[in-house]
Design a protein that fits this description.
By secondary structure, the chain is of the alpha/beta class. The protein is built from 22 helices and 5 strands. The mean pLDDT is about 90.
């Protein structure tokens, strides 16, 4: 396997994946969520209603000179490179160069990372900083040097500044301490100072929440568990989604490895399992109440990929090694197909059913520029819509020429931004978006209605309704 998994081939694999993802970053329209985070970067704050602020800071840095799609997403590509270097260094120290090479190739080719590395969401910074947190904690375990307590604390704080789900590092740490007999850490003052360091780094978000009635914390605490009924079907749907985002072979191999890791007495193996499996299982538990997003446990795959690589390369089994190669090839195939389909619609989903064509998740990456151009040509000054996603897309694809605001019963960041002063007095429109093709916009009075097509099938419809009366804005 050294002929396949070595430093040279790893660099080639990472380079090829970066080129492919850079191509998609440059030529795919922004997902509305990305556009919404881009809008955050234009209104920097210590915190936001929906998430921690790090994604906005990343976008702000990479769009200093240009707001083109590739620059909005540039930090995702940079993060992929940094993660590859970090994983190489980490796994080489843990095991050997062959397993390090396999781990880096796996993490760069799982469908989750192929997608996460060309779009920009809070998952980008949380994956990066969680990986550094885990890495420095291991350096602490391996060397007992005091400085690593504080480096772990700093990066744990940065993880929390990236996404609230990063708090799962704490229960993972407890699992590790129990399994590896590290409970004596509770008697170590540096253990508590590590958490104090993390809290200080996270303090901006605490301050923002204190100023806004703790709204972000209360929203996130109820976000994943708001249903009253239990649905076991969501658990299986969630696990199926995880098998797809990690690749079926890698997902199964990782869980088989984890079982052996948890019952082993090897500190390295217990460590890796403790900082991945609890995260994945936590969201499986929350799936009893609400279906989690497939990306929610994304950061757990840093150590998960290492486990899968080590398990499949741990002995001289030719079968396991062939399974590893097959698993990587399957992931590469899936990632390339999904990426090219997002750009060129190469998978004939429309031949199965029109509903399937409309539901295609890659539809989110097209049709927003058309809407933006129409609003600019109409010399619109203000646009009102009922979704933060649509508002973000309108703001981005009108290049700031159209100010956006929301009329929505669902609370989001727009509730904390001022309503434009000229709304309803200068040229104002209400923009309605039907992403599921279930409404009849043609019945709307005085509306310009148009469609976005893929393979001659309408996948989205828009309605633009002009109004100069503030009281009519919310009732198109």
């Amino acid at each position: 396997m050294e002929k396949i998994f070595n430093k040279k081939n790893t660099m080639l694999a990472v380079g090829a994946s970066i080129v492919f993802k850079a191509f998609l970053s440059a030529f795919l329209e922004l997902h509305p969520d990305e556009a919404y985070y881009w809008l955050w970067s234009k209104k920097l704050a210590l915190g936001y209603y929906d998430h921690s602020p790090m994604v906005a800071y990343f976008i702000k840095i990479t769009t200093i000179f240009s707001d083109a799609e590739i620059f909005v997403r540039l930090s995702s590509t940079i993060v992929a490179v940094i993660l590859s270097v970090l994983m190489w260094k980490f796994v080489k120290k843990l095991f050997n160069e062959t397993i390090a090479a396999a781990s880096v190739i796996i993490v760069n080719t799982i469908p989750l990372m192929m997608a996460a590395s060309f779009i920009i969401t809070p998952d980008t910074p949380v994956f990066l900083f969680y990986a550094f947190t885990v890495y420095f904690l291991w350096r602490l375990v391996d060397s007992s040097e005091t400085k690593y307590w504080y480096l772990t604390g700093v990066f744990f704080g940065l993880t929390l500044l990236s996404k609230y789900t990063g708090v799962l590092f704490a229960p993972c740490l407890l699992v590790y301490m129990i399994l590896d007999k590290k409970l004596s850490w509770f008697k170590n003052k540096h253990f508590y100072l590590m958490f104090l360091t993390a809290f200080i780094v996270f303090l901006p978000v605490v301050i923002w929440n204190a100023q806004h009635g703790w709204i972000s914390f209360t929203y996130q605490l109820g976000h994943g568990l708001y249903n009253t009924s239990l649905n076991i079907g969501y658990v299986f749907e969630y696990l199926g989604a995880q098998a797809l985002v990690a690749g079926p072979v890698i997902f199964i191999a990782g869980f088989i490895a984890a079982y052996g890791y948890f019952v082993s007495k090897d500190s390295k193996k217990i460590f890796l399992a403790s900082f991945s499996i609890p995260v994945i299982l936590f969201f499986a538990f929350t799936a009893l109440k609400r279906l989690p997003g497939a990306n929610w446990p994304s950061f757990a795959y840093f150590t998960f990929c290492i486990m899968a690589a080590q398990y499949l390369l741990s002995d001289n089994s030719k079968v396991k090694r062939k399974i590893l190669v097959i698993g990587i090839l399957i992931n590469v195939f899936l990632s390339i197909i999904v990426g090219l389909h997002a750009k060129y619609s190469i998978v004939p989903i429309y031949k199965f059913s029109q509903d399937a064509a409309v539901a295609d998740a890659t539809n989110w990456f097209s049709g927003w520029k058309v809407l933006g151009n129409k609003l600019v040509k109409r010399d619109v000054k203000y646009a009102v819509t009922n979704s933060h996603q649509w508002a973000g897309a309108i703001a981005y694809y009108t290049k700031g020429e159209v100010e956006v605001t929301l009329d929505s019963h669902r609370l989001n960041q727009f509730a904390y931004w001022e309503v434009p002063a000229g709304l309803g007095t200068e040229k104002t429109v209400v923009v309605k978006v039907d992403n599921k093709m279930r409404e009849n916009f043609r019945d709307l009075k005085d509306a310009e209605v148009f469609f976005i097509d893929k393979n001659d099938i309408p996948i989205r419809q828009y309605a633009i309704i002009e109004t100069n009366n503030k009281e009519q804005i919310t009732e198109p």
